[in-house]
Structure formats: C-alpha cells, structure tokens
Amino acid sequence: MTPYDRLDRHALVMAIWTPSGFVAATLLHKGLVSGGDWWIFAGFVAIIATFVAHVIANAVLKTGFTTGERALGIVAFAAALLSLLMAVLVGPAELGARIFLPVGLGLISLVVTVVAYLVIAFGARSAFEKFDVIRDNNLRPASRLPHRGGRR
Amino acid sequence: MTTLLLSLLILLALYAVYIAALVARREVRPADFLDAGQGIPGWAAMFLLPALAVAGLGVENHLGLVARFGLQASHLALGLVLVSMASVLVWNRMWYATRVAHLATPGEALGQFYGSVALRVVMLALAVLFALPFSANLLSSSAQLLERATEGMLPRAAGVWLLAISLAIPGIIGGWRATIATLAMEAILLALFLPGSTVLAEIFATTPGYPAAPIPVQEGVLWDRLPGVIQYSAGIGKEMPSIGIFTSVALSSSAVGLLGIVFSPATLYLGQTVRPGSSFGLSTVWLTGGLMAGVLILGAPLLATRMAEGPVAFAMQLYAAEPLAGVGFLMMVLVGTLLAVSFFVTGGAILFTRELVVRYLLPTLSERGQRFGARVAIGVAFFLVAFMASFLPLVSAILASVALPLAVQLLPAVLGLAFFRWISRGAVLAGMTLGMLIVFFTEPPGLILFEGLFVDLPWGRWPLTIHSAAWGLAFNLLLVLLSSAATLRAPDSFQRSRLYDAMFQATQVKVGGRGLLWALMLLWSFLTYGPGSILGNTFFSHPIFSPIEASLGVPSLWVWQVLFWMLGVVLVWWLAFKLGFGRTSEDRIKPIELAPATSSRPPDWLAAGLSRVTGRAH
User: Fold this and answer.
1) Chain A closest-CA separation from residue B200 CA (Å)
2) Is residue A66 classed exposed, middle or buried when 0-12, 13-18 and 19+ CB atoms within 10 A define those classes?
3) Separation between Cα atoms, residue B35 and residue B358, nearest integer Å
4) Which residues of A touch B327 (CB under 8 A)?
5) How far apart are CA B612 and CA B615, in angstroms?
6) Is the ipTM reported for this complex over the cut 0.90?
7) Which residues from chain A sit within 8 angstroms of residue B184, using beta carbons?
8) B528 pLDDT exceeds 60?
9) Separation of alpha carbons B525 and B190, rounded Å
10) Do A18 and B37 touch (CB under 8 A)?
11) For residues A121 and A45, what is the distance between their CA atoms, to the nearest angstrom?
12) With a CB-CB cutoff of 8 Å, which residues 269-328 of chain B face chain A?
C-alpha cells in the first residue's frame, strides 16, 4: 500500500465510524436515560452495522484491521464493560437493574459478531490460532519445523 | 442545546483539521495539493456527489418548500435521478478526456478541445460565481440558522466568520484531497441523519402526521397534486399562481436547473481527479438516484409536516425528547450547506490558481510555489466569502440565484466534448452567450438591474413557471443546432475528432440496446417530469381504467413519485453498468497530445490587462 492508500483507508474508516458513532450514541443515550430497552438494542445494532461496514471496506480495499484499530476496539469494549460493572456495583440500584440486561446482551452480541467475523474470515482453526499464544511461545528456530508442530 | 451544538461543530472542525494534517504530512509531491495526484479515492467521490446534489436543492429550502406547497414541491426530489444520469455520463467522459489528452481542469478540457480562451474565462467566471456569491449565500443562511439555534448567543456575523475559519483551515492545510475526504464523512453524516431524523420525529411525535394527516399548506394550494402542466403566469414577483407553482414544466425545468451542480467547475474537477474504478456508477445509481432521491421522496413530506414552524422549533421538539437527536437534526441542516461551501470555495480557489495564476500569470511557478499560491487563494477566497456573507448577504443571494442556471448553459459544450463531435466552437459560444443572457434576465440580477435602470419588464422570475435554466438552455440548444449545421466542416473539427476517437477507443461503453434505453428514457421523462406527470394526481386513487375508487390511504401522487423514482434508478443502472458509463479504467487508454489550438494564446485584451498587472510583456 502506498502512503496515500493507507491514508485513504484511514479516512474511509473514520468516515464510517464518526457519523454512525453519533447515531449509536444517540440511541444508547436515549435508552440509558429513558430506560427503553429497544433504544439500547437499536444502539447496538447501529454499532454492529458499522462494524459490518468496516469489514466490507476492508474486503473491498483488501486490507484487515490495523493494530491501532484492534487496540482501540478492545479498549472501548473494556471501558464499556467496566462502566456497566461500575454502574451495577456502585451506581443507583434502579439504574443497574434497568440497564444490566439490555447492555449486557448488547455487549455479548458484539463479542458474538466479532467471533462470527473471525470464523467467517479465517476459519475456526485459524481464528483460534490468532489467540493461541501458548502454541507460539517457543522461540527456538526448531519449533518452526512442521513436524515439531510449528506453524508460525 | 447551544453548548451541545457548538461542541459538535468544534468536533467537526477538529476532525477536518486532523484529516488535513494527516494528508499534509503524507504528501508525496507538492503539486498533489491541487489535484490529489488525480487519485481522489472512489469512495469519497461516491459519497460526496449525492450530498452535493442535495446541497443544490438545499435541505432547509427543500423542506420549507414541501411544508409550503406539499407533494408538488416534493416532486422536485425526482430531479436527483436526472442529476444521476447527467453525472454518470459527464463524469465518465470528462475523466477519459483528462487521462487521454492530459486536460487537467474543466477549463483546460473545454478550452483546449474547442481551442477557445473564452471558454476558459467562462469556466473561471463560473468557478468564482460558485465560490463567492453562491457559497456566501449558503454560509449566510447557515450562520442565520446558528444564530436562531443559539437564541442569539452567536450572532450571524460572528457565526459567518467562525464557520468560514473552521472551513478554511483544513483546506489550507490539506488541499483538495483533505477537503474531499472530510466532506465525504459529512456526506455520510447527511445520508444517515436525514432518514434518522425523519424516523425519530415520527417516533417522538404525539400527534398524527403525514400521511395520516394532510400537509398543512396555505388555503387554496393543492398539496397532494400537481397544479397542471403549465400556469400562464408572468413569473414570481409579478404573479403567483394561488394553487402552487410546481406545474409539470416547473418541475422539469427545475430538474434541468439542478443539473447546474453537475456542470459546476468544481464538480467537474472532482470527476476528473477521481481514481479509476466503479465509483461513478455506485455513486450515481445507488447513492444519488437511489438512496438520496428515495429518502427525500419518502421522508421529506413526513419531516416537512412536522417542521411547519421552521427547523429550529422542530429541533427544539426533538431536543426535548432526546438532546442528541435535536442537535443531530440541526447538524444535518448545517452540514448540508457547509459541505457545499467548503467544496465550492476550495475547488474554486484551486481552479483559480491553476487556470489563471499558473496558466497565465506565473507559468514558470514551481510545484511548491503552486501549492503556496493555492493556499493563499483558498485563504483569500474564504475571507471574501465570509466578507460577502457578513456584509453583503442580499447581493450574495441575488447573484447566487444565477449560479446553477448559468452552469447549465455549459451543457452543449460538454455534450460536444463528450458525445457530439459536430458541435463547433462558434456554436457553443453563440449558444452559451444567448442562454446566459436569457438566464440573467429571468433571474433577480437582470430583473433588478433592468427594472432599476429602465422600465418594468412584463415578466418576473421564471415566467410561465419555467425555470430560468430551461429558458436559457432551450434557446442555447436551438442556436447551437443551427450554428453547428452551418459549421459542420469547420477547420477546427480536426483536433476534436482526434480526441473524440481516442476517448471512444479508451472507454468500454457498449453500444447495444441504446435505442431502447433512449426510448424508455423519453417515456420515463414524459411521465416523471413532463406533461404525463399530472396523470399521477389521480392515477392510483381514481384509476382511469376503472369506475372504482381506490382507497390507498396515501395520495396518488406520492405513489406515482415512488414508482417513477424506482423506475428511474433502473434506467440509471442501465446507463452506468449495462452500457458501462459507471466504470472507468486506464487499461485501454492511449494518450494523445492535442496540438495547440490556433487561439491558445490569450486574447489581446486579456494579455494587455495581465501585462498591466504583472508588468511583463506577453
């Protein structure tokens, strides 16, 4: 990829996430404030739809998620999970009871979407190997030989 | 609402600066600042075209017209399908002309193709017209909306300057590529918020809206039907038909007027600087003709019914239900105009630099010098726009009214470049001059000037409810046809034929089935915009083939509009993908060098004027 290709891809990803993020934020805010489960559901649908659009952009441009994007995604997910837990544990009891189920299900649906993407894109085995650090922790060159089980 | 709205506007400005800084840091050649190395990503152009088309209609303006005139005004949105057709044809051929003969700007393309400096000057004048008064008018209306939304906390003049600065900085830093990349994001924002606001408005509403209730228009206005084929009215300002102005001819001629967006120099330049691929087809078929036209046809009546008291009052209602929704609606209206301002000012300034400064004033300017010149031009252009919007809003509005119809008068010239080699230079110039004069005297600038200096004219704006663009274009085309018939064997046709043949070989356009397509298009146009469109008034409620009355629950005209919108998308798809105008490829291009036309040197009057400015002999 040329510098311009990387730049254009980055701009496209930003252009996809920025407006959709606002839409998702609107829906989630409405759901969290007024207590409508369907609003929260719609907010997570917006996030998943945007993720799908991002995957399509990757497929069209023949690229994958960058390290920064993966890191940002994980951090954002962790922050959302932590916020939910904090709201349930130290927030008002009414708030925790109201949002725990819809937001929890929403976060689970995000995980399911990412896992489904990984399985579809790489196959079950390759998708698992991306997280299989134990198999790849042997730094000796001999461990790379196929008959020793090395697949790096 | 003020804090949230201003915060979002600041975030939008920061986003633009971020993208611009990235582009500037990764710039390979300084000259890329001006044309992005003719490598604007396809996706950016894909999203931007529909937003520009909507900006041509004007989000606030269109919703206001629908609120005032009902479905007859909503019919205007079908003009986006015509815009799609014109865009896919024109962009395709301009793109190939750029690659085949190295004609890098619209002025250069038309100027060199016809061997006419006058055409370059016309293109430059149009670029300035779009960049200054047209954009100033949009900027002024945006600032006015901001003033109302902030309840006077941000006065109009302050809003104008703040908005202008926030748009200028990214353009100055990142140039053409950064501007387009940022505007593409704003276009997506518009495409999401327009239907989103409509849906949210219906969910939050406490009273029934359209179609359960009629659109609340003034007494006597036919809100659910077209008011005939033509109204024998002297024109707006002289006489106003009480049942509404959007007759069939008004709609068809307004659709022609909307084509001015396609023929504006900056839009043509965008088409020239895009990478090869299928972006033209995807943009015109699915996003402009499909998504945007559909959203406006289906959504505008619903939204307009809710916002009878104006966009700010409607935003307040949404804000009460969900703050982000209310602010998002206002952002959508603002973005719909601001992206056009940013696009036309930055594009116009870059074209000004390339067409005048680099071409004539400082032809030996280095690439770095060109970039610097473009940056200065962008800064000055935004200053002038802000100045006009602040201190000359009325003058801007009057001059802005002629921008689109004047740009439409380029149609014969572009058709000559793209398809009809028999259209000659003299014919184009004569037709354009006549067409532009007619536009001028059927729009406010000419009317005000003439009536102020001499006597009252018997006609007003858009006499017989026919848009000025169509008045001008009719006489323009007539003169072009007559003149071209007399100059079929003119000596200047040799270079035109060379380029035409080279473009024909390079394009992969299929010729089969064209007769059927044009026949279907004529039929579709007749029933969509032409006299046949009034059949839609009652076709689905009182069918002509049956004595039984149908009770659809929605006006017959709305169903007619939806039906012909969908059929129109099929026709655009045919043009773009079956015939191949939606795809571009460099594979079969054999570049040629057009010989310098006999009149490539500047005319004496221009050279003399320039030499006075630059102090150099030409």
Assistant:
1) 10
2) middle
3) 14
4) none
5) 5
6) no
7) 11-12, 15
8) yes
9) 28
10) no
11) 21
12) 321-325, 328
